[in-house]
Amino acid sequence: MRSAALFVEGIADVKFLQDFVQYHFGQTLKDGQHIVKCSGNGGLAAQASTFTQFALQGLTNCIIFDADTEAQETDFAGTKDRISKELASITQTIHTERPDLPVQFDVFLLPNNHDNGDLETLLERIINPENQPLLDCWNAYEQCILAQQERIPSRTLSVPIRKSKIYSYMEILHGTSNQEREQAKEKNRDYTMSEDWLLNHNAAQNLHTFLARYFSSTPSPSIP
After folding, report:
1. Residue 98 maps to which CATH number?
2. How far apart are CA 55 and CA 139, in angstroms?
3. Are residue 108 and residue 205 in the same domain, yes or no?
4. Are residues 77 and 182 located together in one domain of the fold?
5. Does residue 43 sit in the same domain as residue 88?
């Protein structure tokens, strides 16, 4: 049984949570029906009518966004505060038209609802440990790039974003043909493949606990 609708930032979050919920709770989340993309972390206000529709069905609107980092000019506390204020304003707007409608919200910020970070932070933590040497190579590459700043003083160097890191991890594992490399794209990944990812990893415990409030479990692998 499902008692919530999920609101996320983009397609990467949709695919990951679809696989996560299917794996742990045996339920299918349809994109646009059970899980909604908000086109970035500033798109909540545009979802007011959708929040209302789900509230009329007795569902809780669960916001699952990135906590982000200071490098992105915010952090967990700042993001939590901003979202709380947005939801308070949205609730007030909804109640102007439907004063008797109970609108319920719940918020989870990736990676674990208390640290800075994002989806990619969580993904990096739940890779199959047998594949850790691949990320070690990438980490060494990042350090190498940063070490070249003094040799190229005329340019400000930066390492690729973590999305590139996760994409490269998948691309390395899934062959060299164009068809095989399609599996590395966010919308095509299969997070239930234990050769690549461990959805029962302790790093996903907080997310599992949060979602378990709203999804009835069916026999499936569970987090210890």
Report:
1. 3.40.50
2. 45
3. yes
4. no
5. yes
Of 58, 56, 77, 60, which is closest to residue 68 (Cα–Cα)? 77
Question: Does residue 84 fall inside a structural domain?
Answer: yes
| Amino acid in the structure at residue 103 | V
Q: pLDDT at position 179, please?
A: 85
- Closest alpha carbon to 190 in 1, 8, 3, 22: 22
Note whether 73 and 134 are same-domain residues: no
pTM beyond cutoff 0.85: yes
Query: How many CB atoms are closer than 10 A to CB 211?
Result: 21
User: How far apart (Å, rounded) are the C-alpha atoms in residues 88 and 47?
Assistant: 13
- Residues listed for the chain: 224
Is 218 part of a structural domain of the chain? no
Percent of the chain with pLDDT over 90: 80
Q: Which two tokens stand for residue 25?
A: 């709770």
Give the separation between CA 203 and CA 224, rounded to whole angstroms. 11
Q: Which amino acid is at 5?
A: A
Left if phi > 0, otherwise alpha if psi is -120 to 50, otherwise beta: which for 32? left
- Angle of helix 76-97 relative to helix 48-56, nearest 10 degrees, comes to 70
- Structural domain boundaries enclosing 205: 4-122+198-212
